[in-house]
Hints:
The chain is α+β, with helices and mostly antiparallel strands.
Amino acid sequence: MNKLIECVPNFSEGNDMNIIKQITNEIESVEGVKLLNVDPGKATNRTVVTFVGNPEAVINAAFLAIKKASELIDMSKHKGEHPRMGATDVCPLIPISNISMEETAEYAKQLGARVGKELNIAVYLYEAAQVNKNRNNLSVIRGGEYEGFFKKIKLPEWKPDYGPAEHSVKSGSTVIGARDFLVAYNVNLNTTSTRRANSIAFDVREAGRVKREGNAVTGKIVTDEKGNPVNIPGSLKSVKAIGWYIEEYGIAQISMNLTNINITPVHIAFDEVCKKATERGIRVTGSELVGLVPLKSMIDAGKYFLEKQNRSIGVSEKELIKIAVKSLGLDELSPFKPEERIIEYLLKDITSARLINMNLIEFANETASESPAPGGGSISAYVGALGISLGTMVANLSSHKPGWDDRWKEFSDWAEKGQHYKNELMKLVEEDTTAFNRIMTAFGLPKSTDEEKKARTQAIQEATKYATEVPFKVMQLCFDSMEVIKAMVEFGNPNSITDAGVGALCARSAVMGAYLNVKINASGLTDKDFATQLISQGLVLEGKTQALEAEILKLVNSKIK
C-alpha cells in the first residue's frame, strides 16, 4: 500500500483570497497530492491549508507553497489575533497511513533543509523532528513572535536548524516538523473579554497557570526552593489553549489545540470548557473546528451526547454526525458541511462506492439493466442489510418505548450491534461487484505467449477465489445478524415484532442467495480442497440459518395470535 502523509501549513494571510489562491495553486500543481481544505480566518489573519499525498509529492508541494508565501506575504505589515513568526508560520507533517512518525520526521528535515538553503529562510524543527527537547514545543519556539525574533534569533540557543541566523523582515522565520494528528478547535463565549476567556483557557489547558499569592492575576508569583515558578495544572491533558477576542464575530473564544484526541477528545474539551465557563458566570454558545477532523471524533461525540440523554447510540453515521454538530454548536458561526470537514470523507473515492451511493430507483434500474453486475451476490448482501436494518429499527424503538426508560442501554447495545452488521453488509454490496469485475479483468489479460497464459490463469484463479470468499462473508454476517433479530422478537417492542420477523426472512434469503454464489464461483476453482471446504461450511451455515429462521418465525407467530 502507498505511504500517505498529511501537511497542514499555516500561512499568515486570512483576508486576501487572491494571495491564498496563488499559494494553493502551487500545491495543486503537484501530481500526487490532493488539496483537502482551505480555512481562512479574518480576525486571526491566518489560513490553515490541508493536503495529503505521497511523501515526495507532499514535500515538493509544501516547498512551492512556502516559496510562494514568502513572495506574496509581507510580515512587516501583518496584524492578527493568532501568534505568528513568519509568512509560513508553521508547517507540520502528519503520518496518515503506511508510514512511521520517524520516517515522517525525516521528510520534515528534508523540507526544512531545502527551505533554509534555497529560500534563505530561517527554519526551526519541532515536535518529532526536533531532537533538542528544550526547543521542540511550538509555543516555546514562537515565543516573542515576529517582532521579537530579530533579537531572539541572535541568541546562541536559538540558532536556526536550517538557513541563516537572520530573521527576514518580509518573510519572518518558519517552523517545520512532524506530529500526530492535531485538532484545532475554538469554543465560543457570550463575552467580549479576552481576560475572562484566558482565565477559562488557563483552567482547562494542561500547562495551567502560574500560582500566585492572593490575587490570581496581580498577586506575587509563588516559587519553589529553586526559585522556579510553581504551576497549577489545568484540567485537560494534551490540550493547549489561549483566550482571544474575534472582531469578525464580536465574541471571545477559547482557542485550543487538542494534541492527542485519544486522551482528550473534542466532546470532552467542549464539556469541560462549558463547566469552567459556567463557574465564571459565562456561557458557551457554540464552537468551531479549524481545518479538518477525523470521522471518529464526530462519531464519538454523537454517541457521547446521545448517551447523556439516555438515548440509543445505535443510529446511522449520518445521524451521529448531526447530533455532534448540534450538540457542539459547530454551525453557530457558519454552516458545518461534513463532506468538506471530515478527513475520511474528503479522502473517499466516490467511484469505489458507486452502488451504495445510488438511490433506490437508481439501484433497481442498474440491477435490471443489461450489465451483469450488480447481480445475485450484491443483492443478497443488500437484502441482508435490509433485514438487520429492521432488527435495528426494533431495537431503537424499544429503547424509546414509554415505560421502558430503564432499559434504554440494553436496547442501545443491540441497536449498535445491528448498525455494525448493516454497515459491513453494505460494504459487501459493493465488494461483490468489485469481485465480479476482477474476474472479467483477469479474463481480458493477454494470452499470446506461454508466460502470459500462465499469468492470466493465475489471475483468473485468484479473482475467482476472492469472488467465492465475498459471498461467504455475506452468509456469515447475515447468520450472525439474526442474533439481534431474534433478541428483538423475544424482548423488543411487541408492536414491532412482525418487523423483526420480516428481518429474519430477509436474513435467510440473503444467506441462501449468497450460498448460490459461493457454489457457482467455487466450481471454477482448481484448488478443489479450498472449494470443497468452503462449500461444506456454507451448507452447514445455510442449514443453521434455516433452523434459526424457523425458530424466530415460530416466536413471532406465537406472539401475534
